[in-house]
Predict the structure.
Amino acid sequence: MSTTLRRHDIFIGGEWTPGTGDGVQEIINPATGKVIAHVPKGTEKDVDRAVTAARKAFDDVWSDSTPRDRSERLLKLAEAIEAGGDELARIESENVGKPLAPTRSEEIPPIVDCFRFFAGAARLLEGRATGEYMQGFTSMLLEGRATGEYMQGFTSMLRREPIGVVGSIAPWNYPLMMAAWKIAPALAAGNSVVLKPSEWTPLTALKLAELAADIFPPGVFNVITGDGEPVGAGIVRHPGVSMVSLTGDVATGKEVARAAASTLKRVHLELGGKAPVVVFDDADLEKVVEWIKIGGYFNAGQDCTAATRVIAGPKIHEKLLGDLVPAVSGLKVGDPMSEDTEMGPLVSEEQLTRVSGFVDRARKSGAEVLTGGARIKKPGSWYEPTVVVPAGPDAEIVTREVFGPVVTVQRFTDEGQALAWANGVDYGLAASVWTRDIGRALRMARKLQFGTVWINTHIPLVNEMPHGGYKQSGYGKDMSIYSLEEYTQIKHVMASLD
């Protein structure tokens, strides 16, 4: 069964509407290379229409809504996503190329839970304290002489208020999940949203708009398809947008931050990653290999937290390679719709070219490719699951984000070197450490410069805990109450008691 080939519209002000331009984007199934849908290439005029609708909804309705109202609507959306989970998983699988079975079982439930979590959190936002912090003294001139008297004082209170219109720019690797991470806290806090999905993978965002259409007031949630320029950049430039949240690569993040500075927008950036997997000699080898298979190759390694950079101890290094290489070469790569498929294609020909280039350059620089390292010659954007022993710790394939099914394995000599290598990249999103020594595990977790550190596992995330980067992996948190607070601003209100 495949997605019905159709031409979609964009969703603005609670209505489906054609784009104002003539451009049309073909949406490709990367497993087959075939066109499965068409969407409008939005224009800057479409951005303005969406921001205007979002601002009107914010001013007229949504900013004055109660936490209970917002909570109940988010719960209804969660129910709609859960009921339509099979269809959403199928659309996501076809549009991105990821295996259907784990998409259905491992992505849809956390997305539903995300909306439910923020539905509850919407009713728990608070200021830290209200009280009297100052007593007043007033003076006046009376017949040319200064006189004064004490006033009773002042009461201060805090208001936590929504920011306004949030421009959300979602990536192509987890189109629906990353959209949920952005939409749920923004709406829960009382903001309205203009969402731009990736031009490659917009279909689940459009389906989400269809589910939300009868739940939220018109204009609260809008979706525009199209390219980074003019749509994404247009959202960042628009003076009516108060905050921009982007998940993307580092270069795009820097461009967004620069452009947003002209209007002093608040900016939330979740950028790239190059997660180290630090494996000490006493680690559970079987568990390590199993989690590298999951964390390094699900979604064809197209994950900012992917277990791509294994740094192994001197005694376990050879054993790890001996178990990992056959495990990776034995991965079931094939039709994403098949229940036993473990890895599908890369998202596009462009991404395939990027990944191939990294591996080819690594070979030329002296790296050893132990398995994989080549395109799979059939229709679509397929690449073999790959294990590489790099030429050194500073090699390009070690320090830069490949974003494909490629895992490097290095051998460290001692804990100090392992830590230095792990921290020796520009990224700081996620890391894992593997050891039976709890003291060593906690010592490494403290010193690893990453926003998430796993101990004896790699990849699990929960909506109750924050997720975000250090260094050039960006700033701001997704998920958790910390994310919700980022979509608000604090106002101090002081009242005289006199």
Notes: The radius of gyration is 25 Å. The longest helix spans residues 100-121. The mean pLDDT is 93.
